[in-house]
UniProtKB/TrEMBL annotation:
Any single Pfam family the record assigns to this protein: Response_reg
Signal peptide (residue range): none
Modified residues (4-aspartylphosphate): 54
InterPro entries reported for this sequence: CheY-like_superfamily, Sig_transdc_resp-reg_receiver, WalR-like
Organism of origin: Rossellomorea vietnamensis
Name under which the protein is recorded: Response regulator transcription factor
Gene Ontology MF, one: DNA binding
Domain of life from the UniProt record: Bacteria
Single GO BP term: regulation of gene expression
Keyword tags: DNA-binding, Phosphoprotein, Transcription, Transcription regulation
Region annotation (Disordered) ranges: 127-162
SUPFAM superfamilies for this protein: CheY-like
Chain ranges of the Response regulatory domain: 3-115
């Protein structure tokens, strides 16, 4: 069972996230708070496996560092990407960074991926972090969990999209008629 504490400053969203995660058979929400400072007390009391926080909430009181010290993994949710923030996420060894408008499937699978030792970083947030950088100043994220992992370039992403398109076409053509 994955034990979760949620910190979100918007009460409505806090309730929705808690309700969504409570529907999962392998997840248990053990604490919720709209106060960034209170989340540290919840983590100390309930000792969750992962804490899901709003980006602004985690910036207060060195929360990420204190959560790491407790052994709790951290996933950050954000409404808007902020320049330079992805680099900070990686440096702080935060395991997940997703937009709040992620699909519920992506959100839940990201939590599982983090609990299996991986990382879950939104490609869109990573790309928006690079938007202000010049040619050749790409980030060295670690979405694969490997140190020194270099995120794919725009050309590599285009190539991957082309390959995906071909694979989809092949898969569709291989379908046999029913009946």
């Amino acid at each position: 069972m994955i034990r979760i504490v949620i910190a979100e400053d918007q009460e409505f969203l806090l309730g929705i996230i808690g309700s969504l995660l409570s529907l999962e058979e392998d997840m248990e929400v053990v604490g919720q708070s709209s106060d960034g400072a209170e989340v540290l007390a919840l983590v100390k009391e309930h000792q969750p496996d992962i804490c899901i926080m709003d980006m602004d909430s985690h910036s207060e009181n060195d929360t990420a560092e204190k959560l790491h010290a407790s052994g709790c993994k951290l996933m950050i949710l954000t409404t808007f990407a902020k320049p330079g923030y992805f680099e900070r996420i990686v440096q702080m060894d935060i395991k997940g960074y997703l937009p709040k408008d992620s699909s519920s499937e992506e959100f839940v699978s990201s939590i599982r991926k983090i609990m299996e030792g991986g990382r879950a970083y939104s490609q869109a947030l990573m790309e928006s972090d690079d938007s202000g950088k010049g040619e050749g100043e790409g980030r060295s994220g670690s979405s694969s969990g490997e140190p020194g992992f270099q995120a794919p370039s725009d050309q590599q992403n285009k190539t991957l999209e082309t390959v995906r398109g071909y694979l989809t076409t092949f898969k569709d053509k291989m379908k046999l008629p029913a009946g």
